[in-house]
Amino acid sequence: MTEEQDVTLEIQIGELKSEHRALDKELHDLGSDPSIDDLQIRRLKKRKLFLKDSITHLESRLVPDITA
Description:
Largest sheet: none
Distance between the termini: 20 Å
Number of strands: 0
Radius of gyration: 16 Å
Shape: elongated
Number of domains: 1
Strand content: under 5%
Protein name: DUF465 domain-containing protein
Organism: marine metagenome
InterPro entries: DUF465, DUF465_sf
Number of helices: 2
Pfam family, one: DUF465
């Protein structure tokens, strides 16, 4: 992978981490609001999990594949 591709991946990872943190904060804030339905919370949690998986996948692409 080229250095430019590495930088692009790092930028994408940073954006995903930022969105993940924002969802975490939103879920924390919604947890104390009794008027929020469970379906909305489940959707946010699914999105947060998807972001985490995407971050992990992109980070694994940054690590060189070394077979010993």
